[in-house]
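hiii so um. not sure if this is the right channel but i have a protein structure encoded as tokens and i wanna go backwards to a sequence. like what aa goes where. can anyone help
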């Protein structure tokens, strides 16, 4: 749509001249009012006025030529003709430029609309996926509760059967004793019966209490799970730098590939560091973050079994890409056990070839994790195979604070000071360190305790006491080895 002022400027027509044609333009649907009650010219109306203007200039040009032929001053005629031709050429060129600009604007608008539509469709698909996954998790919890209740009923039935059996045996003994003429006092029989009854009630009560604790624990872990339903990197507390490294070095290339742009995506990623800091979780979360397919390859002691596993994963990745256009992240944990120095030469050769071509041939990237990168063959780690290596060190103050806030959410009362808790956890560094898994373990155990006690939340001192009673699980030796590993990998990645 074009405003009257814009059409007047572009075509060299006065607004008054346009308004004189209002009835004609309205009848053709070329002139309408916008939401602001201002007159606007449609694109077809614009072209219509443009053609009229061109025709007018052409008519004027012909008229001038006829008059000039009759004139004695041929030179003046020639000059006028030249001037008119110049004006016509100018307006034709100007109108063509305006038309091209308008078409470009339309194309840009259409592209933006298509991009927004595609994004909305992808968001809708993702919402559907998340709702389906949540439904599955809920169903699993319900089925587990049903199974627990069923098991409890079976145990109680067994106890009832056992009690009935004992009663029957006791009655049989009493009958036999009476038949034999033995004088057994009724109070002794009653005493035995009471003891049996008490024993049964004690067992029944214990089972009932156990069932109640189980149900409370399930509710607690369900609540805890609900704090971890985020997608992708949202599942991982802290480690912003590592997340940014992954997205910068690999993620942006994968996003570019999805949009049809040329991109070079690494064949392999190496994630290394001390045990318990979330390397395995990073791999799956990375795949989710980029909406990639995810396959986990199990490590076996046998090289041939490892070869079959990785071949099947690569085949699945290729088939998935051909069907959906979506890349696969192949996760291999404990990679030092998957491909150690002493591996079979045929397997080593196959892996080297696969790592050279897995990105382009199979549309997959290997995400390998290890606690011992020094045990991996140096040749495998050269650029082109594992061109990205990211260390996952024990959490610093910032990361530890994020981890504490993540796990205490919903279970801590107002007295809990996460900053002070963090200070207590990191004060052991650099001599020792708490792993992420150990921090989670401490908090989960405390949550279990308060649930058993019938409490809804723990306080600051309770959490602090639990930390003081729990020793760090990453030793100084492990930290020293990690620094040496980091230096070794850096040299390999830089100099190879």
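sure thing!! here u go:
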């Amino acid at each position: 749509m074009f405003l009257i002022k814009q059409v007047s400027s572009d075509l060299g027509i006065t607004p008054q001249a346009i308004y004189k044609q209002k009835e004609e333009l309205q009848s053709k649907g070329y002139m309408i009012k916008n939401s602001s009650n201002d007159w606007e010219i449609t694109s077809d109306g614009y072209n219509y006025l443009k053609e009229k203007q061109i025709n007018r200039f052409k008519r004027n040009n012909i008229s001038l030529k006829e008059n000039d032929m009759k004139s004695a001053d041929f030179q003046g005629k020639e000059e006028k003709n030249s001037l008119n031709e110049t004006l016509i050429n100018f307006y034709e060129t100007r109108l063509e430029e305006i038309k091209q600009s308008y078409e470009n604007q339309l194309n840009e608008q259409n592209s933006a609309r298509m991009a927004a539509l595609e994004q909305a469709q992808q968001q809708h698909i993702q919402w559907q996926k998340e709702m389906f996954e949540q439904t599955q998790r809920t169903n699993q919890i319900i089925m587990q509760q049903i199974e627990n209740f069923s098991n409890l009923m079976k145990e109680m039935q067994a106890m009832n059967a056992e009690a009935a059996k004992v009663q029957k045996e006791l009655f049989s003994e009493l009958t036999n004793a009476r038949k034999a003429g033995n004088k057994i006092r009724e109070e002794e029989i009653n005493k035995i019966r009471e003891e049996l009854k008490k024993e049964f009630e004690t067992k029944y009560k214990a089972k009932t209490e156990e069932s109640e604790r189980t149900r409370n624990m399930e509710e607690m872990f369900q609540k805890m799970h609900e704090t971890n339903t985020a997608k992708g990197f949202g599942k991982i507390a802290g480690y912003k730098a590592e997340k940014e490294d992954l997205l910068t070095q690999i993620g942006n290339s994968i996003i570019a590939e999805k949009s049809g742009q040329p991109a070079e995506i690494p064949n392999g990623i190496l994630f290394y560091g001390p045990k318990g800091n979330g390397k395995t979780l990073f791999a799956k979360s990375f795949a989710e973050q980029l909406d990639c397919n995810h396959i986990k390859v199990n490590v076996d002691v046998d090289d041939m079994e490892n070869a079959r596993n990785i071949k099947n994963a690569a085949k699945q990745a290729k088939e998935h890409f051909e069907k959906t256009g979506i890349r696969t992240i192949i996760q291999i944990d404990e990679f030092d056990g998957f491909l150690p120095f002493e591996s079979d030469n045929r397997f080593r050769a196959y892996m080297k070839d696969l790592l050279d071509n897995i990105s382009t041939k199979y549309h997959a990237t290997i995400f390998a994790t290890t606690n011992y990168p020094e045990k991996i063959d140096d040749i495998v780690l050269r650029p082109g195979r594992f061109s990205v290596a990211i260390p996952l060190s024990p959490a610093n103050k910032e990361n530890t604070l994020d981890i504490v806030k993540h796990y205490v959410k919903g279970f801590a009362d107002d007295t809990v000071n996460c900053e002070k808790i963090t200070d207590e956890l990191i004060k052991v560094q650099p001599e020792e360190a708490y792993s992420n898994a150990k921090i989670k373990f401490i908090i989960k155990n405390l949550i279990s305790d308060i649930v058993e006690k019938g409490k809804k939340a723990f306080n600051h001192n309770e959490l602090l006491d639990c930390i003081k009673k729990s020793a760090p699980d990453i030793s100084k030796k492990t930290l020293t080895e990690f620094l040496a590993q980091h230096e070794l990998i850096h040299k390999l990645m830089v100099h190879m």
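oh and Strands lie at 2-3, 31-33, 39-41, 268-272, 293-297, 328-332, 364-370, 386-391.
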